[in-house]
Every structure is written in C-alpha cells, then in structure tokens.
Amino acid sequence: MPTPDENALYKTINDDFAVAGQLDPDQMPAIAEAGFKAVICNRPDGEAPAEPQFDAISAAAAAAGLEARYIPVSNQVGLTPENVTDMKAALSEMPGPVLAYCRSGARSAKLYEIATG
C-alpha cells in the first residue's frame, strides 16, 4: 500500500484501500505513481457545481494506467443496498490498492466498512 506523506490527499484504511476527498483529473498520474491501481468515485456527478465529472476522472485515470469505477452515493439518500453490492463487486474485480473518493472521504470509508464487514 502506498505510504502517505504529511501532505497526502488520502487516508489509508488498510494495505489495499484508502479514501480521499474530491479528486481532480490532473491528480491521476500522481495517484498512479503513489502505487494505486484503481480509483472508485463515490460522489454523484453534479453534487457540487465546480467538481469534475466522473467521465473526466475516468479518462484521466485510464491515461494514467488506473482502472476507474463509478459508484455514486447520494448525501440525500445515503448508502443503498445497490451501493454495497456494487462496492463488493468492484473490490473483488479491481486490482489493488484502491483509492475511493467522495466529497470528504467519509462516504467512501463507510461504504467500504459495510461492504467488507
């Protein structure tokens, strides 16, 4: 698992999984260089006006050699059984370590906890 430095964008959960707040497409090469193999977006497109859309993240991730998956978790609705099922599938299918993100990393961490618990 990548080891974060004091200015890291992510929080390590375990050797195979970390979480982060909103990521930008231009951060994908650094994420790959840090040793991650995949990113999961848990933030719905359009949640905040200035946030990058998943298509831009996905394209940048692919260009950096990362797999990307979109599993949006709405702040208004909360985690759904479908979110948990999709996260379980992503974690079993994607290479690790995986970096998941949302607005702050909290939804991603909670989804991981439920999906793996």
Description:
By secondary structure, the chain is an alpha/beta fold. 34% of the residues lie in helices and 18% in strands. The chain contains four helices and five strands, in the order ββαβαβαβα. The chain has helices at residues 28-33, 54-63, 81-93, 106-116; strands at residues 10-14, 17-20, 38-41, 67-70, 98-101. The protein has a five-stranded mixed beta sheet with strand order 1-2-5-3-4, sandwiched between helices. Helix 2 links the parallel strand 3 (38-41) and strand 4. The protein is globular and about 30 Å long.
In a nutshell, what does this entry contain?
With 117 residues, the chain is α/β, with parallel strands linked by helices. The chain has helices spanning 28-33, 54-63, 81-93, 106-116, and strands at 10-14, 17-20, 38-41, 67-70, 98-101. Helices cover 34% and strands 18% of the residues.
What can be said about the biggest beta sheet?
A: 5 strands, mixed
Q: Tell me the β content.
A: 15-25%
The poorly predicted ranges are: none
Secondary-structure-based class equals alpha/beta
Distance between the termini: 20 Å
Say how many strands there are.
5
Count of alpha and pi helical runs: 4
| CA radius of gyration | 13 Å
Average per-residue pLDDT, rounded, comes to: 92
Helix content: 25-40%
Query: What letter string, H or E per element, gives the SSE order?
Result: EEHEHEHEH
Q: Quick one: overall form?
A: globular
Strand order of the largest sheet: 1-2-5-3-4
